[in-house]
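Long-time lurker, first post. I've been practising inverse folding by hand and with some scripts of my own, and I keep getting stuck on stretches where the structure tokens seem ambiguous. Below is the full token string for one chain I'm working on. Before anyone asks, I'm not after the true native sequence, just a reasonable design that respects the backbone. If someone could post their per-position residues I'd love to compare against what I wrote down in my notebook.
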């Protein structure tokens, strides 16, 4: 295939007519396909179905220290569950607090608490004139929704192949006391699938923010979510690096079992320094008498340990890998050589991120919707939904069946091609 930019006007017009016809044919099929959200598919959920059998009315619901999990108590989570979640994100169990069913909820809580009560004795953020936040882009839309909800001013930070632009981050946090945090998805990032390099992690650990209440929100949502056994990314452990750099309180590290067991019915955890834990537990002890220990026990009895989790993640990968491979195959077949788009080929996580020629993404997403394919909203991966180049499209291959995915990816690729041709024709 020749680059579209090398096509003559007559060739472009012929291509436009051909692609329009093909898309009309797809539209006539009346499909209803969804590649919008990174949800596990029913076959993945079935992998954890027998977790429902490990507890029953006949089973002793005491945890290993004898605590009756049916009753109140044990605010920070049962020890065996701390060990399990700690192993998943490679920290000591004594650095972990176990929460409820959603890590996003824990992130929201951290910001909410900082707003009303400050961080370890600092001025509550709501009493400050301005609070700012660094947002590596493209990033996770729900992160940006939280900071936007609290009226926090968001600053875009470009992502590179090895993580966010550290020169910019170091400069901004050193000079501006209003900057209180940064969103990071350091492994198999949402949506780029990037894992931060050792050098990026070291530079994060050594940050010298002007604001003493600055925290790195290290959302390790995809720590064990590899797609392959032979190609896996490695991420340095940030809490360790912060300690070694003399910055032990700099980071809140989040995780959950959402895409290991059941999204929305899993277990979330936060790992941080002892001082941060004490600060957080003060609020937590007012907020709740304790989270769901029965679910904690259920997860521990089902997975047992990190080996159990890893075995389960290989089963997830066996379902997900063919889907990611199919999307890659169709995109290469349809787009190679056209210059219409580039896209990522991650080793893990839940997304493929596509970059179209500038000014095309919103139109492509609208055209796909017209043909029955729902994609994540245009601009969603940017603060305030503003993609400055209008070029990012997030593809979530996990939920549709292989057949649906094949159809949806073809419609996406044809739409990308048509919109690129239309731009070149000056439409
Ligand atoms: N963090 C990231 C980066 C995600 O992609 C997601 C879900 O897609 C979440 C957090 C949500 O996690 P939870 O279900 O624990 O709230």
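-- Answer (accepted) --
I ran through it position by position. Result:
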């Amino acid at each position: 295939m020749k680059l579209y930019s090398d096509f003559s006007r007559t060739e472009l017009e012929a291509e436009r007519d051909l692609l329009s016809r093909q898309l009309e044919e797809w539209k006539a099929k009346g499909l209803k396909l969804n590649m919008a959200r990174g949800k596990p598919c029913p076959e993945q959920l079935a992998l954890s179905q027998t977790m429902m059998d490990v507890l029953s009315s006949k089973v002793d619901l005491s945890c290993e220290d004898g605590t009756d999990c049916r009753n109140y108590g044990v605010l920070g989570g049962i020890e065996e569950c701390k060990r399990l979640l700690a192993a998943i994100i490679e920290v000591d169990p004594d650095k972990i607090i176990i929460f409820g069913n959603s890590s996003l909820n824990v992130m929201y809580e951290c910001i909410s608490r900082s707003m009303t009560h400050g961080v370890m004795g600092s001025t509550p953020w709501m009493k400050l004139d301005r609070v700012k936040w660094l947002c590596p882009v493209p990033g996770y839309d729900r992160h940006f929704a939280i900071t936007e909800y609290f009226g926090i001013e968001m600053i875009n930070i470009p992502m590179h192949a090895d993580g966010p632009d550290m020169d910019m981050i170091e400069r901004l946090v050193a000079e501006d006391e209003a900057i209180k945090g940064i969103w990071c998805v350091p492994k198999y990032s949402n949506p780029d699938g990037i894992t931060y390099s050792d050098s990026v992690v070291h530079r994060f650990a050594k940050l010298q923010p002007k604001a003493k209440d600055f925290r790195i929100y290290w959302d390790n949502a995809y720590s064990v979510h590899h797609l392959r056994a032979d190609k896996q990314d490695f991420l340095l452990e940030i809490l360790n690096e912060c300690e070694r750099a003399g910055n032990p309180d700099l980071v809140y590290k989040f995780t959950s079992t959402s895409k290991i067991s059941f999204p929305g019915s899993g277990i979330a955890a936060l790992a941080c320094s002892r001082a941060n834990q004490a600060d957080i537990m003060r609020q937590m002890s007012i907020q709740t008498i304790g989270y769901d220990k029965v679910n904690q026990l259920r997860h521990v009895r089902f997975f047992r340990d990190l080996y159990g989790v890893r075995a389960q993640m290989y089963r997830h990968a066996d379902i997900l890998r063919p889907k990611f491979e199919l999307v890659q195959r169709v995109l290469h077949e349809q787009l190679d050589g056209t210059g219409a788009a580039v896209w990522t080929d991650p080793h893990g996580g839940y997304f493929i991120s596509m970059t179209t020629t500038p000014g095309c993404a919103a139109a492509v997403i609208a055209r796909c919707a017209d043909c029955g394919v729902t994609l994540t909203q245009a601009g969603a991966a940017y603060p305030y939904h503003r993609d400055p180049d209008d070029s990012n499209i997030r593809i979530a291959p996990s939920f549709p069946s292989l057949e649906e995915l094949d159809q949806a990816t073809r419609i996406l690729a044809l739409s990308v091609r048509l919109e690129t041709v239309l731009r070149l024709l000056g439409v």
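A couple of notes from the structure itself: The pocket of pyridoxal-5'-phosphate is lined by residues 38, 102-104, 140, 185, 190, 219, 221, 256, 258, 263, 268 (CB under 6 Å). The radius of gyration is 23 Å. Happy to go over any region you disagree with.
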